[in-house]
Design a protein that fits this description.
This protein has one domain: 3-Layer(aba) Sandwich (Rossmann fold), CATH 3.40.50. With 150 residues, the protein is an alpha/beta fold. The chain is built from five helices and five strands; from the N terminus they run E-H-H-E-H-E-H-E-E-H. The protein binds 1,3,4-trihydroxy-5-OXO-cyclohexanecarboxylic acid. The site of 1,3,4-trihydroxy-5-OXO-cyclohexanecarboxylic acid has 10 residues, from loops.
């Protein structure tokens, strides 16, 4: 019997509200790549790194909390998290990150510190292992490289 291929470590890529609108949404800030484009780039890079990615998006805070809580049990070795606007408001997501042992890397396309004052506080960043922000779609790829080293 041929041996089943060894499964590769999985990295969850969790995306919050309005990130399903990428490509259409304020392209001067977020660029012209869609979330599917970014997921494709991540899959290519993951293959090079010997990883698998599982990219998800939800506009609902509780879905993000559930996905973070279940990441360990579902075999994720790391989580890349762009929580969108919940970054700046969600104590629930902050607490979920603290409740799990899987490392969570905060990702943003834009650099929130260069934007409106209400984006300068990150409840996600206060719980995350680290943050990559301001490089457009490249932020996700840099965060995946960091995840591969963890
Ligand atoms: C964002 C930055 C957030 O402030 C904003 O609410 C988003 C996108 C980013 O990727 O730059 O939805 O997370």
């Amino acid at each position: 019997m041929p041996e089943a291929p060894a499964s590769r470590p999985i990295v969850f890529v969790l995306n919050g509200p309005n990130l399903n609108m990428l490509g259409l949404r304020e392209p001067e800030i977020y660029g012209s790549d869609t979330l599917d484009d970014i997921a494709g780039m991540l899959e290519d890079r993951a293959r090079e790194l010997g990883l698998d990615v599982d990219t998800r998006q939800s506009n609902h805070e509780g879905h993000l909390v559930d996905w973070i809580q279940h990441a360990n049990a579902e075999g994720a070795k790391a989580v890349l998290l762009n929580a969108g606007a919940y970054t700046h408001t969600s104590v629930a997501i902050h607490d979920a990150i603290k409740a799990v042992t899987v490392p969570v890397i905060e990702v943003h396309l834009s650099n929130p510190h260069r934007r409106e004052a209400f984006r300068h506080v990150s409840l996600v960043g206060q719980a995350a292992k680290g943050t990559v922000a301001g490089f457009g779609a490249l932020s996700y790829l840099l965060a995946l490289d960091a995840a591969a080293k963890l």
